[in-house]
Amino acid sequence: METRIYGRSGLRLSxxxxxxxxxxxxxxxxxxxxQDRAIGLSLxxxxxxxxxxxxxxxxxxxxxxxxxxxARKPAGIAxxxxxxxxxxxxxxxxxxxxxSMDGSLQRLRMDHVDIFHLHNxxxxxxxxxxxxxxxxxxxxxxAFEALRKAGKTRFLGITAIGDTEALHQVIDAELIxxxxxxxxxxxxxxxxxxxxxxxxxxxGRLFDHTQKAGVGVVGIRVLAAGALTGTAERHPTxxxxxxPIGSAHSYQIDLERARxxxxxxxxxxxxxxxxxxxxxxxxxxxxxxxxxxxxTVEEFQGSLxxxxxxxxxxxxxxRLAALTAGFSGEQR
Length: 332
Fold this sequence. Notes:
Elements: E1 3-5, E2 12-14, E3 18-19, H1 26-29, H2 32-45, E4 49-51, H3 60-72, E5 78-83, H4 93-108, E6 113-118, E7 122-123, E8 131-132, H5 133-149, E9 153-159, H6 164-172, E10 178-182, H7 206-213, E11 216-220, H8 251-259, H9 263-266, H10 273-281, E12 289-290, H11 297-308, H12 314-325
Parallel strand pairs: 3-4, 4-5, 5-6, 6-9, 7-8, 9-10, 10-11, 11-12
Antiparallel strand pairs: 1-2
Helix pairs in contact: 2-3, 2-11, 3-4, 4-5, 6-7, 10-11
């Protein structure tokens, strides 16, 4: 398994991480036997980053990951989890973060996590369930730093969703060590300029900012929550299609556009659309590790096989750019 240095942290993470999210659902709704088998296969393959959150199954994901890791006791792994501060607790952000961490550590059966991510979207002025840049700077970061000083986490991070300018400001300020970035074949604007009138959020070459600030990147929504499989069929363990992040405003539109990328398969660049999407995500040098949702052990094995084939060749990237240019001017 290829590993990459993760920003300025000094961590060396496997390019494929093990995502314990609720969209694929294996670590939330899967059987204990399948959860143990998938993690065992991942460890055998050299995967050393495991990503979870209290929001995944209301603690179920953390509990299940903690159970397997307590039994296996693997060495040399890194675990990340997250906190989402509900708007009703915005008057007590620090207290909420501290309590969330303690609950996560209890469920994970660990005394610390390596990376602790803020799960709330970040906007310039805040509002709704989003946190403003000033709230992140003045309240979230000090709360995270207190946890770091207490030995409960090593590195601080954000889930990089919200206003593009707000995300740039937080990253440029070098307040964090890690960013979870939505990056896939439907929206590559974290890496490159979008064509004019492209129907997606423009992340404004976010990778330029992470690289300059020494922030490690976790690639999320690699399969656009399943749309980039090209099929509407979902395994019973998976969640219903969630709201897209950064691409279309509806999952159905994401799916329809994904199917228009099938020439990548029919012309021989990949054996499946999912394989193409996974290999695309590891192509950019700013990417530290990627997470791919899974409902079954077999889906995990498919992701592993795709990563082992390596990044897409330049000819495939050129073909993808030509295909996605056709989306310009369409409804988001």
